[in-house]
Write the structure tokens for this entry.
Amino acid sequence: MEASLSTISVDGHELAYEVLPGRAPGVIFLPGFKSDMTGTKAMAVRDWCTGRGQAFTRFDYSGHGQSTGKFEDGTIGRWAAEAVAILDQVTTGPQILIGSSMGGWMALLTARARPERIAALVGIAAAPDFTEDLMWAGYPDEVRQILHCDGVYHEPSDYGEPYTITMRLIEEGREHLVLRSPLTLPFPVRLIQGMKDPDVPWRTALRLAEHIDGEDVEVVLVKDGDHRLSEPADIARLGRMLEGLLF
């Protein structure tokens, strides 16, 4: 099935997206922090949906991948609004949200904004509130001082060039925390978390599951799993999980 490549304009930025038409519910893949829609998991889900004839959407946030904008200008609120815009303007009918790392936070914010559109939510190493709980809480005093004084910190990364972290990202993120207020998700939620994840502690998945106000919530802990969870066994596990969520 041929893909449809296009862009939509959201708050002055052109967001790149791809849509594969197919059966409902559709599936939307929300990538992680400084990741994009060409990642291993996004492409694997795309292939899985194509094989089933399932509708599928993937996209890049502003400052990521093929979308316009600078990464360092992005905030949690902006990227979440873009995810909602993709849901509203690009898709129709019920959708299964699949969020990887930061995309898990974006999926939760999208589901909170449009619960009536969501058929299910899958978090892969979901990182809700990571700007506060993982970044700010984990920074030593000298890094916090750099952010306060310079407004920006270049954080080393195991995945490539350093991340440009701004004080605005940290401060604006506090307006979108999901683990400090009620989080009602009246649909199936599935969380996959590696126990050898160096970036998101595996207990984050348990904390999120406990916090969610919903009856159908399951957590899968992968004892030897890393943050990416993109090995063949991980992709196969994700496919089985999606199979169980489709109706």
About this structure: The first strand starts at residue 4 and ends at 10. The chain is about 35% helix and 30% strand. Helices lie at 40-52, 76-90, 102-113, 130-135, 141-150, 167-173, 203-211, 232-245.
